[in-house]
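sorry to bug you again but im stuck and you know this stuff better than me. theres a chain ive been looking at and ive put its sequence and its fold in token form underneath. id like you to explain what the token line says about the fold, in plain words if possible. anything you notice is useful, everything is just below.
___
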Amino acid sequence: MNPSTKPKKFCFVLMPFTDDFDDIYKFGIKESCAEVGAYCERVDEQLFTESILERVYNQISKADFIIADMTNRNPNVFYEVGYAHALGKRTILLTQNVEDIPFDLKHYPHIIYQNKISKLKEDLIPRLKWFVENSEKEDLSQNVDIEIFIGEKSLANKGTVVTFNEKSIPKLEFTIYNKSFKLFNPGDYRLGIITDQNYKRLRTHNPSLSGIKTTRLPDGRNLHMCRIMDDILYPNSYTSLVAYLEPKTISENTDNESVRTFRYREEQEIIVRVFTPTGTRDFFLNVSPLHDDQKLN
């Protein structure tokens, strides 16, 4: 298709309709969309015969992506953003004040523009440009709103390290958080842990976990797959999983005796992969064996 005749991407805007937001919308959001070759509308600009709520639902569903201004914690905007997230829509969140970001949405990036249109456009245009240029590419991780923690550390941030004594088996204590408005029934979400071949299997004492299977991947790594059987993961709820990575062992001769020791010596990065019907999402974790002269964290 000729680029000049290709339909423009549609952005639906969720924000309060009060006068103090008019310039933000017209000169900040609308001009930014036009600059990247998209067009945007608010529901108060449209003519329709259905109820306003039905129209909002319709336009969120139709939109290629959403912009939502969360300033002042407007309850209508919050409700509409929840609906957009439930549909897996790509959403750009804005706010004038960081204090307006509630706890449940702190995991999502926000553009904090401090009531400055120039600041808003500076940060908004690059994101809109990326959305327009990549809208044809399927990004399944956008649709997976499950997050994994080790203790208080989110694995969404690279660099988390779990240390363990080199003579013991690595123990991984995961907290699984459903930060979406979706409900995941048993079997709707599965966890896989990808390691090198020196970790031969995954085991757990969790009674709600079954069907653990280890598969050798074409690149030589192992994928340890498991499925949560009993836990319904409600919106904004948590569950936990304790897993042990069992390594291969090697024989070492000490004082004329053969001793079996674990076959790892160095830190390695493992992947914790969440599988759902709408896509997958990868988290990264470093596991590090400590020697006798080192202390556990």
Residues 10-135 form a domain with the Rossmann fold fold (CATH 3.40.50.2300). The first strand starts at residue 9 and ends at 14. The chain has two domains: 10-135, 146-290.
